[in-house]
Amino acid sequence: MSTRIAFLKGHGTENDFVIVPDPENALDLSPAAVAALCDRRAGIGGDGVLHVVRTAAHPEAAHLAGEAEWFMDYRNGDGSVAEMCGNGVRVFARYLQHAGHVTEGDLAIATRAGVKSVHLAKDGDVTVGMGSARLPEGEVTVSVGEHGWPARNVNMGNPHAVAFVADLADAGRLLDAPPVGPADAYPDGVNVEFVVDRGPRHVAMRVHERGSGETRSCGTGACAVAVAAARRDGADPAVTGTPATYTVDLPGGRLVITERPDGEIEMTGPAVIVAEGEIDAEWLENALR
Ligand SMILES: N[C@H](CCC[C@H](N)C(=O)O)C(=O)O
């Protein structure tokens, strides 16, 4: 019998992930291996992979070992690397609790976008300190077919273009990445969000994610949407001195985003471990050929 590699499956508002515990960073998780694991027909299936590594064991994160014991080595479903994954951090924290590495309460998780503070509440929700948003200068536009909209450029550690539309159906089927202009605005690609209002400080969104396609939810995207909506609504906390809280409905569930006057953004939502099992190492090896 060939070697087995442990995995778990989890999701946060139906943004789903293959979780691969690998404390000593011993596995060669190449882009091809990640894409094979995320393949929804020939593999396990997921929007991305959460590679669970002790911070001290990963060359990109070892400098953060004094601040956080675990590093979320996040990969998109196409095998590309992204700086941050908001839903992923919640599921990552839930995995650490499931595996007995942490109990409920507060913990820190290292990511490529720095160390994130996480609170595991008794009632099942997880709150993540997402840091603050950057709003690069310059107009960007998003197009779908003959439609075009001005969009807000928001960086949550990863890039987002947020377009407010009349109807979420205006985004079409989102089978491909919607063109974003100007062409040089996002040299490394971008996550694109389409937003409609549902009520005061209440929006709904769809997202086409860089490296994963349309997903049921995007945590960093929901934060980008809340930040863009607060600027549109004259509720920028840095100006008003008052925190701005938005309820964000996604196809896969609901997230609550609060931006404080100091710029810190908190995201609260569910995180679920669905299953665990073993990957056949020989299968994975063959999948790379
Ligand atoms: N596709 C994103 C990373 C995952 C973001 C999303 N799943 C989230 O929950 O924040 C990117 O390439 O920047």
TrEMBL record:
> PROSITE patterns in the record, alphabetically?
DAP_EPIMERASE
Entry EC number(s): 5.1.1.7
The pathway is: Amino-acid biosynthesis; L-lysine biosynthesis via DAP pathway; DL-2,6-diaminopimelate from LL-2,6-diaminopimelate: step 1/1
Q: Does the keyword Membrane apply?
A: no
For whether the record's keyword set contains Lyase, the answer is no
Keyword tags: Amino-acid biosynthesis, Cytoplasm, Isomerase, Lysine biosynthesis
Task: Report quaternary structure and partners.
Answer: Homodimer.
Its family?
Answer: Belongs to the diaminopimelate epimerase family.
- The name this protein carries in UniProt is Diaminopimelate epimerase
Q: Which organism is it from?
A: Streptomyces pyxinicus
- Chain's gene name: dapF
